[in-house]
Amino acid sequence: MQKSITFNEKTRIMGVINVSPDSFYPESRITSTDGAVKRALEFEKLGADIVDIGGESTRPGSEPLDADDEINRVIPVIEGINKRSGVTISIDTYKPEVAKEAIACGATMVNDISGLSFNNGLEFVVAQSQVHIVLMHIRGKPSDMQSYAVYDDVVREVSNELDTSIRKALDAGIEKEKIILDPGIGFAKEAHHSITLIKNLPLLKSKGYPILIGLSRKSFIGAYTGLESEQRLIPTVAANAISIFLGADIIRVHDVHEAAQTVKIVNEIKNC
């Protein structure tokens, strides 16, 4: 349960497993337990270090899912993966009851889109379990977050609001070594905000925490290219390569094979 992840030697790849019928990218939707477990095992073979299991869509405008329904979606998947693989399992949830069940079944990371801002006690579940937590920046909730995408200085404001999340985690007893930061690309952000945050990843990295970047096939790419989510692989690879070069420790992706190739070449360039 206290499995630890190291970050300095290479960029980690997190593969997205959406056990949901309404994720923004149709190809990522899996509604069967067997299908989700199979994809997770395929991701591991392709080079994923982490599989991120989510039962609730958090795309802009999405509505929350009842915790019991979310548990029913994700727990059989986590159990199935854990029986057949040693890959690190992340639970993509902001609900403490879901996180607690997922950790009991083998998840060793909680990917919290709320950055502990929903004030529901998730931090205490994480602290007690001694698992990793991803603190993502968001304003509002997925159903209304884009109405909060107003910034005078997006880098400074996101940085300050992540500091609030960090303090809350540390005050609850979460160890510094278990905290990962995510600037929340596309969450309460317009396209130009997301681009600016990617360019300024070194400033967020200077806080001394690993950085996760989740930009795979997102709408900011469509805003600049005119492409639908199904067509955004090449610009996703480009943006991930730049993010890795600027200090991202984990890239969260739908396309693990391409991400693994990206990591190999960028790390070679960085380390030569």
3D structure, described in words:
The protein has 272 residues and is α/β, with parallel strands linked by helices. Helices cover 43% and strands 13% of the residues. The protein has an eight-stranded parallel beta sheet. The N and C termini lie far apart (36 Å). The model has no long low-confidence stretch (mean pLDDT 94).
Write the layout of secondary structure elements.
Layout: E1 12-18, H1 33-46, E2 50-54, H2 67-84, E3 88-92, H3 96-104, E4 109-112, H4 122-129, E5 132-136, H5 154-172, E6 179-182, H6 191-199, H7 201-205, E7 212-213, H8 219-225, H9 233-245, E8 250-253, H10 256-271
Parallel strand pairs: 1-2, 1-8, 2-3, 3-4, 4-5, 5-6, 7-8
Number of helices: 10
SSE series: EHEHEHEHEHEHHEHHEH
Q: What is the overall shape? A: globular
Distance between the termini: 36 Å
Architecture (CATH level 2) name: Alpha-Beta Barrel
Number of discrete domains: 1
Helix content: 40-55%
Question: Within the largest sheet, what's the order of strands?
Answer: 6-5-4-3-2-1-8-7
How much is the radius of gyration in Å?
17 Å
Number of E strands: 8
Portion in strands: 5-15%
CATH homologous superfamily assignment: Dihydropteroate synthase-like
Overall mean pLDDT score? 94
Structure characteristics:
8 strands; globular; 272 residues; 10 helices; alpha/beta; 8-stranded parallel β-sheet; TIM Barrel
